[in-house]
Amino acid sequence: MTYQQQSYACSACGSTAEYAPGKNVLRCPHCRFEQPIAPVNRQIQEHAWEELATLPPKPRAPGGQALQCSGCGAVNETAMLSGRCQFCASPMVASAATDRIVPEALVPFRMEQRAVHDHLRTWAKSRWFAPNSLKKVSSAESLHGTYVPHWTYDAWTASSYTGERGKVVKSGDSETVRWKRTSGTVQRFFDDVLAPGTSHVRLDRLKDLEPWPLHQAVPFQEEYLAGFRTLRYDVEPEAGWQYATHRMAEVIKQDCRKDIGGDRQRVHSVNTNYASVTYKLMLLPVWFASYVYNGKQWQVVVNADTGEVTGDRPYSPWKITFAVVIAAMLAGFMFFMSNHHR
């Protein structure tokens, strides 16, 4: 079945408008006319974990969704929620209502391409021993903005632990630790613990982009997607919850150490109970840049709000060899001067 895509026509010239990063407007790329995005009368809501059992199964449409471009009329088959027509490059936005879980909120793009280029250029210059071709990462041809789905979770936790408290006893220049068994309970409320909702971007790469300004999130509106790619989630909320509990466990273990006190701490076991668990689906803005070096594709990602940059980088064997030679020469010179003064 072919669906007509969401269309946002410029009221001045009739072309398709796009979301303008950093502004609450749709901007026409041709005549530059801007029209405000009307706010929705809806609050961002957390959804009770129990609601998942009442949702219908996730639709399994092979090959994605067929969208008819409002610009040229071509039919595009895509698994993404938004992107560009492969024939005329017009912005295309599909309806999210067909998904099992609709995004509840998003953090809009704040950084335009020009600012992203500056951050990439600074990042490239700071990579020691990188080849000169790394500068290609800031080229416009390799850059595209994408909303990446994330799950957020809230939960009250109560954790009982067993461990040992250590007291350092000094005797002259030596010291020993006297351990005493202990146990206790710590409690904590977790708010908006993030878990990526996609398997198409590496977990460590997305984690390196944190923290995200989640307080700047707005209720989901498809207008914000116009002109950008948007990945549909393929990691279910149940799998995201498992990842989130691992992140919570790291914090809880530190809470246990603080509760144990003393000079040293050992945590042997932690048993956590979760209550009032809620979730929601959010879209977070990421700029992706890619370039080819030595026949291999390299990728760099940028937080489209904070400008944080992370990603892959090659190493230049020539620069490394030159640095080793210089270091050896300096070491030899220092050795010569030391013997000469003797």
Topology of this structure?
Elements: E1 2-4, E2 18-19, E3 25-27, E4 34-36, E5 47-48, E6 65-68, E7 75-78, E8 82-84, E9 91-93, E10 105-106, H1 113-125, E11 143-171, E12 174-196, H2 203-208, E13 218-219, E14 229-230, H3 237-260, E15 264-293, E16 296-303, E17 309-311, H4 317-341
Parallel strand pairs: 1-6, 10-15, 11-14
Antiparallel strand pairs: 2-3, 3-4, 5-15, 6-7, 8-9, 10-13, 11-12, 11-15, 15-16, 16-17
Please tell me what the overall shape is.
globular
Mean pLDDT: 83
First and last CA, distance: 88 Å
Unreliable residue runs? none
The portion of residues forming beta strands comes to 35-45%
**Strand tally:** 17
Summed up, the domain count is: 2
Question: Please, could you describe this protein's structure?
Answer:
The protein is α+β, with helices and mostly antiparallel strands. It has two domains: 1-38 and 59-98, no CATH class; 39-58 and 99-311, no CATH class. The protein contains four helices and 17 strands. The strands form four sheets. Strands 5, 10, 11, 12, 13, 14, 15, 16 and 17 form a nine-stranded mixed beta sheet that branches. It has a three-stranded mixed beta sheet with strand order 1-6-7, with no helix packed on it. The longest helix has 25 residues, at 317-341. The radius of gyration is 26 Å and the shape is globular.
Short description:
The chain is an alpha+beta fold. Helix content is 20%, strand content 37%.
